[in-house]
Structures are given as C-alpha cells and as structure tokens.
Amino acid sequence: MSNNVETMFSVREKPWHGLGTIVQEAVTSEEAIKLAGLDWTVRQEPVAWNGQDSGWRMNVRDSDERVLGVVGGRYQIVQNTEAFDFVDNLLGEGVTFETAGSLANGRRIWLLAKMPSYDILGDVVDPYMVFTNNHDSCGSLKVAMTPTRVVCSNTLALALQKASRTWVARHTGSIGSKLEEARKTFALAGKYMDSISLEAENLAAIKIAPKDFTSFSEKLFPITGEMGARKEESQIQLRGQLESAYNEEDLANIRGTGWGVINAVADMVSHKTPSRKTDNYQENQFMALIDGTEVIMNQAYNIIRTF
Q1: pLDDT at 24
Q2: 124 neighbors 117 (Cβ within 8 angstroms)
Q3: What are phi and psi of 53, to 5 degrees?
Q4: pTM of the model
Q5: Percent of the chain beyond pLDDT 70?
Q6: Which one of 29, 113, 199, 212 is CB 3.0 to 4.6 Å from 84, fit for a cystine?
Q7: pLDDT digits (tens, 9 = 90+) for 87-121
Q8: Can you tell me the distance from the alpha carbon of 115 to that of 240, in angstroms, rounded to the nearest whole number?
C-alpha cells in the first residue's frame, strides 16, 4: 500500500478500484469511519508571521498533529463524522457501504456505497456512489457515480448531458435536512443510472462494422505528422489494446454496436497498467474517476455518437 493511501476498509471482497481490506458485513457510516481509521478530528491553528496573525489557518489532524492544509480565515471545517452521517439515511434505500479510507496523507477521505443493481441490456451493472470530503480547501463534500459492469468489472464513468455524474452534497445540521439531502442524493444517483440505461439503448442501436471500428480507433488515438516516433508507437499500441478489449468474450453479446465499443474503451480504462507504474497509480486512477477527469471515456463517447 502506498504512502498516499493511509487507511481503508472494504466489504466482502475488494471493490472495482482494487483498494481496501476485507470485512465481513456492511456497516453504518459511524462504524465505517472507525473501521477505516477515520475517527479523528481536525482543528484550526493560526498562521503567524513576525508575531502577527496572517489571517490564514492551518487545518491540523488531532491524531498525529499533521497539517492537512492551509486555508483562509473564513474556512469552516466539516469533520469526518459530520460529513458522512447523513449517508446513513440512504441505507433504507438498499444502499450498503463497501469501502472507506483516506488519500493524500489524510487530506481527502471517502466512503463508497453500493446501490441496488441495474439490468442494462441483459448485463448486471452495479452503481457505486463515492462520497468524498477534503480538509485542504481543495474540495467540498462531493458525490460521484461510478457504474460498474459486473461481468468484467468495467467502470462506465460517462459524462452525460442529461444527468450529472458528480455533484456537491450539502451538509446540514438538522435531521430533517439530512433526510431531505439523502433523498435528493438518491434521486440524482437514480437519474444518472436511468440516463446510462437509456444511453446504452441508444448506443446499442448504432451498428459498428469492422471498418467503422477501425475508423473509431483511429479517431480516438490519432496519428499526425507532428508526432514523434515514440508517441506514434504509443498510439499504435493503444489501438491494439482497444482491439484486444473489443474482442474479449465478455463483449460477445454487444460487439458490433456503439455500446460494445464504449465498453471496450471502459475495459482499457479500468484495467490498463500505466507505462510508469508508480506506487500510488491505483489511487490516482481512483481519484480521477471520482473527479470525472477520465478524458478517454468522454472522448470515446463523443466520437461514437457521430456514427
């Protein structure tokens, strides 16, 4: 485990992002935070210069006195327990916790929850909601949806026009407000999954002949005269990896369609090993999925809709 990932837990088996240790049953957010080693608090200390208060504050973790970030004087701390206690209201909707942990030496924490499965074109897709909170002023309490095609553990993180994949979850103090926010969160998650289901049907209606797949691959990984030999070779390798993924047996029922092509790209994104495999490459991929920065998936989605 890299130094970037401090603590975590998971339920039954390691989830799609490959991080975590196994526990036997789903838990409440309060129990999850304790199991994940996130039961610490953050306090603020003034940043002084030449004996004068600069107006800036340090967010300090009480468990080890680590400085998690320097923030402005108006910054309000949202403690780990405060950030995720409203998530408990989702458990009544069939949601279960899967993973919790911290990244970047405690500057970012997360809880991952699984919604009830969907049937999309005959495939089981598990919707995951990731709740994150930052202690370094780089982000607020946020929810990100990551549907996963179970048969191959491909993450279908698509940026859709009709439904957001990520949104800010408002932390509120009252029980009534928490229930309202939980219902809103579940509704937004459901809307995204309904949009994914509809988009799958639309993409499945796009027929992709072998020549079309070649054209798609060339558009997704173009080769231009300005490229050096190394970049050109890299693009050729990516095209080969995409073709291999497209011909995998688990895509047999949707091969020859736009939906099959998107899932082939998802297979590449979900399971590719980077050319420079750092100690925390898995965590970087996980954070990219949370933040919606998976460029290739969105490029592929926009290209395939032109066929």
Answers
A1: 44
A2: yes
A3: -70, 120
A4: 0.83
A5: 86
A6: 29
A7: 777 777 778 887 888 888 889 888 888 889 999 99
A8: 35
